[in-house]
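Notes from hallway chat w/ T.B., transcribed later so I don't forget. T.B. wanted the structure written out for a chain they're using in a teaching module, and asked if we could keep both sequence and structure tokens in one place. Agreed to drop them here.
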Amino acid sequence: MKKVLVVETNIQKYAGTNDATGLWLGESAEFVDELYKHHIEVDFVSPLGGFVPLDPRSMKYIDKDIMRIYTEEKFVQEGLVNTKKPKDIDPNDYHAIYFTGGHGVMWDFPDNKELQEIARIIYENNGYLLSVCHGIAGLLNIKDSEGHFLISGKRITGFTKTEEILAGKVKFVPFFNQPAAEARNALFQKKRFYKEFALKDGQIITGQNPFSVRAVAKLYLEERKTCKQF
């Protein structure tokens, strides 16, 4: 069975500030929890490899399921302390790549050519591109072999400007997800702020906010059931 690659940020603070950010813990832990239920193996990668900081605000939303994953030695060591570097990844080992969120990804996901190439190969091998919340930043600049944005013409979603306003981060973010996606001709869709919303368009599955993680995972798992190689 091919594995799923989970992408996390190395960014520890909002640019130009001392305000901490990082991975939104639940966006990794809840996704991994759903895949583990189906005995699907997961690897973790980050732009620089190694340590992944946690957004301190995400710790307020820990439930017993997130805590169960967070206290597993494998998750801590492979997903937070010693993530793989992109150069160590063979895209052919994976059926999907999943971009987690937390505001940090807005700085180290969009322009990472290595991750984009990994994602392109997975996609062109009939695999899936997944993201949740700010993880949409990882999808923005992925292009196909002909140089076209993969999200062009696709229905996708991500953290909205309304949600940024409610989070109090409008002045700190380098861009807003909806106009960035629409500039690449994506069809950005959204629902009420901080409510679960995930959608699939072809081989791309996206979720709007931290409350949409399990919905993204379940849409992917439904797709995986139909794949002949599984």
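Follow-up for T.B.: The chain has one domain: 3-226. Might be a good example for the class.
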